[in-house]
Amino acid sequence: xxxxxxxxxxxxxxxPASEDGSMPAKGSGWLDLGDVYKETCTLKDxxxxxxxxxxxxxxxxxxxxxETATNVELTLLDPxxxxxxxxxxxxxxGEKGSRKWVRPKKLxxxxxxxxxxxxxxxxxxxxxxxxxxxxxxxxxSKGVCLVPMTVKFQSELQVxxxxxxxxxx
Length: 169
Description:
- By secondary structure, this protein is mainly beta.
- It has one helix and 13 strands; from the N terminus they run ββββββαβββββββ.
- It has one helix at 81-88, and strands spanning 11-16, 31-32, 42-45, 50-54, 61-65, 70-77, 92-93, 100-101, 112-117, 123-133, 136-137, 145-153, 157-160.
- The strands form three sheets. Strands 1, 2, 3, 6, 9, 10, 11, 12 and 13 form a nine-stranded antiparallel beta sheet that branches.
- The longest helix has 8 residues, at 81-88.
- The two termini are 30 Å apart.
């Protein structure tokens, strides 16, 4: 019997979120998020809000659990101007070799669908996420442009064992 394990990260796909809240359809609308810096990608649930109600007259306890927030944290490695404009906003102008990009002070409100493709195993995704990037550039002989990102899931986490590539129809 084969052992199915979900491990490694091969690629992260994003597409503009669907108006109806469903996962965007397979096809050419899915983009590669970019190069993810080695060993920086984690998917984590925050601790949910919990409220305990305890009886004064017995041992009865009622524990209420709130929603669980899920986030992916990662760092993009050396993104190009098109990727920076996609995540930070603004537009790239000019011809190749003399292009310019100006980052707006405020991030635009953009919603995305997302699939995380592992090296092996189950695809994990969300039909509606927000990508919150920030710059981190080290200017020294070993420095490189990094863009740490938090991807906030705004709808349910989805797992798909039959998914192979959201770009193919």
